[in-house]
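Go through this chain.

——
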Amino acid sequence: MQIPANARQNFYRPRSRRKIDRVRAMVLVVAAGCGRIGFDVAGADAGSGGPRHVASTLINPAGDLRLCRIAIDGGGNLFAVGESRSVVDVGGGALPFAGLTDVVVASYRPDLGHRWSFAFGGPSTDSCAAIDSAGDRLVVQAQAEGDVDVSGQLVTGFGADDSLVAELEPATGAPLWARAYGGPTDDDFGRGLDVEAAAGGPVHVTMACNGTVDFGGGPVAGFGGRDACRLRLDATGAVTFVDRRGGPDFDAVNRCTS
């Protein structure tokens, strides 16, 4: 794959216990307002111990697409979440576009052949945030404004920007459950959004919280400004634990880990 000399190269290190050296993702600006994403996979060479080229691909040759995060499962399958501002094709055909910005989720084989992909969003701004894979689990997080249809599952928002989390079937991308978390004012602001899945265990979510928020167990008051919130979800997405911290001004969490 030829990478233009003026391309901006970003290195994404997926949380994976497999000995894959790295997945390199390049966002290539090819025209005003248009982008392409390329994946160049390097794996460990059993003979030399150094990296060896595995596969390359360039997706979305026309359209506006931004890559947010990637994850890799134990079989070497790659999962990516991105954000589109138009109709895009990430390998499986044109994906519908609801308006302003939508979230795109896709999966590729170890040789980077397309497995599945879909887009979701509403008429307002919906943004990608995070994705994680553990065992036979795949969880994606996004910022959603208003009600959103996640591949057939309607997620009702709380009146402004919320944190949306969905667990997907890794082999097909079909949603197992999808929920929104937030209150009547903006929650998340695109800052501090992260998700981590545990094989056979809970899902951990970080987000920003604004004002009093009820996550299902009663109102959780804030500290005067926007706070950092960490949630623990069960196998259906229900909140089982909330840790909210902050002060009178803006506070945000960076990443979550179990």
